[in-house]
Every structure is written in C-alpha cells, then in structure tokens.
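User: My instructor asked us to take a sequence, write out its structure as tokens, and then describe one feature of it. I'm not sure where to start. Here is the sequence I was given:
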Amino acid sequence: MDRNPTLAQWQLAQELRRLRGDRKFSEVVKAARTTGGSLARWETPGDRGSVPGPAAVERLLQIYGAEDQLERILALRKEARQPDRWQPYDLERSYRTYANIESQATSIESYQSQLIPGITQTEAYARAAIEATLHPTSDVNREIEVRLERQRVLSSKSPPEFWLIVTEGALSQQVGGAEVMAEQVEHLIDLSQEPNVTLQVLPFTAGAHVAIRIPAFVIMRIAQHGITTVYTEGQTASMFLTDQEDLDEYGTIFNRLRAASLDEGNPSREALKRIARYHRQRKD
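Assistant: Let's start with the prediction itself. The structure tokens for your sequence are:
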C-alpha cells in the first residue's frame, strides 16, 4: 500500500480529539502550554489541520492520562510527516488531501452538475477542461498526469464502490468539441458496466431538484478507519466536511438525487447512448 500521510494525519487528529474527551478546551490549552489555535488545528483532520511536535504529543497524552498510547500516537505522527506519492507533482494542499483520501476510499459517491468528474475523464476531455480553467502559468501536462494516475483506483485490486450521479447538462456541454464529448460519454458507458461502478443520469426533465444550487460534491468513506468526509470545491477554496450534521445532510441530498435520476443500468445507459449519438451527429 502506498504511504498515505493524509490518512495518518486524519487518524491522528481524530485520536487526539477522542482522547481529550469531555475535558474543557481552554483547560487543555493552558495545561499543554500552547495556544487555542494550535490545539484546534491538531484536532482538525484534513488540509486545515496540522501535525503537533513530539513534545506536544507527549504533554497532551500526560494530560489525558494516556501515556500507554504514546508509541502508537507517535507512530501516526511520524507517518503524517512523511512524503507521499504526490510530492513530485507539487499539488495544492487541498487537492493533495483529496487525492490521498480518494486513493484509499472504500466508497465514493459523487454528484456533478457541470463537469464529468476527474476520476472518469478521458485524457482529451481532461485536457480541454484543464486548459479552460487553470492559471496560465500552470503545467497542463502535469495536471493531466495526476488526473490519469488518480483514475487507477477504479481498476485496482480493491477498488472502491463508486456511485456517480451526473446531470444531462454536464453530459451535453461541449467540452473540447463534439468528438471529445462523444468519446467521453462512450467511456462512461463502458465504466457503467464495471461491477464496482453505479452511474445515474439526472435528466433535464427532473426539473427543480434538491441540489439545484450545488455545483458538485463528493462523499468519501474509508470504512476500516471509520473516516467519512464530504468534499466541496469552490473557485478559491475547498472544504472537507466531517461534522455529523453535514454528513447526514449531504447523505440525504445524495439519496434524493438517486430518486430523482434515471435508474442505474439500462435507463441511464440508454440516455448516455442517446447523448453520445447527439455528439457524433454534431461531429458529422
């Protein structure tokens, strides 16, 4: 298994919060001789969190009466500080966090209203989307390489259960031209027949729906570590949501989108075939 410091940091943050238990935050800050901001970041999983030093870990465990956990917690800390497979690509921090969680996920539920998600993009579609949205100084070829590397998870020995809901609008948008779109939609048809992939099309006829104001979101789970997060991406900021209230809310939204979409299997595949033919006809 690839080294995954993101996963280690996530586990470390959750463990430190669990070990604090019902102790008052302010009292722990004072006893640990640290700041509230530092303790908050140590207990925050994901790209907004940080890894405490070994001395800080030792002080916290003494406060919590959990000195017997020191070796295990320090091992997590050490792993969280290690380089990962994405280091050569110099990824932005939130994207790197996302890629690391995605690579270990046991289930991924993705809703996309504007773009085909990166994990299912053809190289031509990815190039057109990246060229349209990246900063002029960005390395397009590097970004494509990362995207294609991420896609390996769907064909790995233990692939995640992947459930994609994509809107008819995203499938119809002319990203890269008619030929590129035809090939992209045909690629989705092939993917939809994989045993670990479920694909639904949300048609125009669905009208107003529960996620009409939400461009996209992804729910990722790593079952063996008890990790669940909702990822939302914006133009200038991305967020990993972990509060149970947020997880419940987005879980409900995704279930309602399932009900509003065409059934998986033949109904959605027939819609994909119709859209692919439309792009082929425009090409001709």
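For the description part of your assignment, you could build on this observation: The radius of gyration is 21 Å. Try explaining in your own words what that tells you about the chain.
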